[in-house]
Amino acid sequence: FIHGTVCDDSFNSHAANLSCQYLGFDYAARWGSKPDNSKYIPEELLEKYDVPIVVGWVYCDNTSSHITECEASIMESHECSRSNNLWLQCQDFKEWAPINAGLFTVDNKTGELEASNEGLLLVTVAYTDGYDNMISLNGTVCDDSFNDHAANLACQYLGYKYADEWGSGSKYVPDSYLEQHGIPIVIDDLYCDEWKTSIMECEANVMEKHDCMKDESLWLKCSHGEEKDPVWDLASAALLTYDPESDGMKIGREGLLGVTFEDRNQQEEPLHGTVCGTSFNYHTADLACQYLGYDYAQEWGTDPQNSKYIPTHFLEKHGVQIVVSDVQCDKSNYNITECGANVMGRHNCSRSENLWLKCAERGNDWKPIAASLLSFDEKTGNVIPGSEGLLLIPYSSNILSSGINAEYGGKLGRWLYSRHRMLRLFQQSRSKSRLPVSRIRIC
Questions:
Q1: Residue 149 · residue 105 · CB < 8 Å
Q2: Considering the chain, what percentage of its residues have pLDDT values greater than 70?
């Protein structure tokens, strides 16, 4: 006898379920290879006892109903390493859970469903009753909460690389077919955040009440084709300074802006680097500080202060590149992730243009709490808010907050207050009476 491990090459979620069923369980809750495989059995132990990889690859298509029916390379040459060793997390059904899925279209000639790489997503959900009987049901998935990342993970569950397209409706299977064959919606609110690596890890309502209609049933178009271009999403950021004692970085409220981007398609390794300061402005700086958990940017800039935070030679030594340039935030943007930017594109920036920020919290500083456009109504003698008029901004602080009063903070507040006094004087001359502050309404 030869005891050995299985390489993850060509493995898919259907193969994982069949493997767990072969082992006496109902389905595979999770599966994978590195880095978790070494948490189960360290590579050093496998090497010590010379445990080989005996199965080079396993492939199970949707027609396979048993793991022994799948194709496999057994005791043949392979290119797998121990980091490719497969691990499984098997479970029994204690409640409804998906165990299989496929994409289907209706054959116009036969009127039967045919499996394809694109079509209506049909899933099989199952649970085990109190008598150890497995009860299963086929149905569709509602498009509520679905997103691009979920589409990619769903296609990967089916053995493809990514989703070319996705949507809902009767494009592949008419609603009348679903009604005729009594095919229900069995999954709703399937949501995958960017950290999920398997569709089985995502949140979903399985066999629960929902308000979906048949025309909200999800379809996918999956692809084995060439890899998609990376789509970079901002994953994290920090303000970094060089610590000569540790020869490393430390994080604070000021420093060189370091960012990490991740590929939404999970085909490229995460990017770590700096941001070019050209095209940056005060609004962008404020949004960047707010992303980092502060209130605003007290200062920001590039050369020469950037090299005081992190010396250029340190960046060169560790190959830290500028990964973002041409950040453009207009006044309609309220989050730095909404702004336009050139990520991993060509640029003319040098290390001297690396961006630094000094972020701050408002503390006891005055800050605006509302705003209104006010105008005087000659008929009523009131000051009324509207879509045009004098801009009035009440300010408050963390210590003093008493609504609208004479204590407006900052130059802008004092300017507005002086205009507010002019407005009140104008009202006095027109109405012969002083307008109480309580008559001013803030929208």
A1: no
A2: 79
